[in-house]
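May I ask for a single protein's sequence together with how it folds?
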Amino acid sequence: MDNFQKEIEERTNLTLSNKFELLLFRLGVPGPGEPPELFGINVFKLREIVPMPVLTKAAGMQAPMMGMVNIRGQVIPVIDLPAVVGCKPETGLNILLITEYARSTQAFAVETVDDIVRLDWSQVHAAEAGVSNSYITSIARLDTDPASNRLSLVLDVEQILCDIIPTAREVHEETMEAKRFNLKPGAVAIVAEDSKVARSMLEQALNAMSIPFISNVTGLEAWNCIKKIMDDAQREGVPVSDKIGLVLTDLEMPEMDGFTLTRNIKREESLKRIPVIIHSSLSGSANEDHVRKVGADGYVAKFEINELSSAIEDVLNGTKSANLR
């Protein structure tokens, strides 16, 4: 029991050291004669792994939706993940990954589960350039040898869910216009978000709020951007808050996660008063506790745009977000 508790604590505290755990699984082969690729998702988004049960298919349900499954009284939609990414299972769909994203629960059918590996976010690199599959958000190097070709493809599950199970996520400009965003003239919002669909929605929302922004794909890219602006402000002899109004960051990102980015900001004397809002599909009290520990000023679940606009209004007006009280 002591070892089990220690393992739980170690896993929970990974967020304090820019580390995470990746579940590795396989979906089959991408084409005739091609080797099967290795895919991964963050263990924090995984609720459980179960053998493939009997599914119930609803009338009118179309591929890649496979049906519904009842897991301890909760009816959950099942998605054929190999079909989504263009793979063909060699032994069938044998496993369900029950996941939680942005307050929703869904199951992904996969062929096999391989392992759980512990990685540093610096081992994960954005995959937007040179990757043909639009559902691949990043590539994880599974060991620390830079010459190694042992890689895992990390899926943009938010994009998959947006395409397959669309929900009402439109940004309503009239709602934004009714709010008051106390942003200094000339200041911008720094955005850090690796998911294309989430980044696009954030940009649309900030435009509706008339808040200028600089978008970044990784936490490290955002941190470098912030440091450059901080250096510019020092040379000009002005507070950095004249240039950066707030920071809006995801938690899971290549190279540097949102916890580390927030911690870096709050440790820097000239930056620590800049509001930081975390916008993430990671849910649960443990993650919200970590958000508090690193000093973030707000926490909003994806894709709750009205909640996000209220949180931005709160922090810009000097009132801490209700989600962290």
Summary: The longest helix spans residues 219-236.
